[in-house]
Predict the 3D structure of the following.
Amino acid sequence: MTLQNYETVASRIQKFWDEYPNGKILTELVENGGNYWIFKATVYLEGVTNPVATGHAHEVIGASQINKTSALEVCETSAVGRALAFFGYHGSGIASVEEITRAKQRQAEPEQFTAIAKKDFPKTVAVINVKRYENLIAETKTITELMKAAETIAKDSELQDSQKDILREVWAKRRAAIQDGDTPL
């Protein structure tokens, strides 16, 4: 894989503005996970209501030298580059020169990346647990079963407050459904 087959994000942006000077590229922070960012970029043409392309990017803070100080900016730029690539501004691939370079750097620093990935593991487990607990709540048929599910959830120290809030809402809806007789007792 040679970098000459890939375009920089700056090159993609310049081509877009040259061809569509009244177009728009909008970015949105989708998620700040504490040690990572997820951005979405959306490309619009002038006078067109629906987007012509979108792109997403995920960057882990500290996963590379540049991400130690600029993960947010790198993530936003990557999302823009991917959206423009999906629109048609790319060389031989969707990834940009910057993304390929970072991927090669990460391969050269496996211990550092592995350590960062391990930091993310509890968050991944918590997301899985939310789904598992949503299923547990959905399967309850009585208030007693629902109360036992709540006790199990309360003991999970990996869940964040926002995740517990989601589960409280699911639990309350299930309780109302059981009380209304929407489920066999």
Q: What stands out?
A: The chain has a mean pLDDT of 77. The two ends are 61 Å apart (CA to CA). The helical segments are 9-19, 67-87, 97-108, 110-139, 143-154, 161-179.
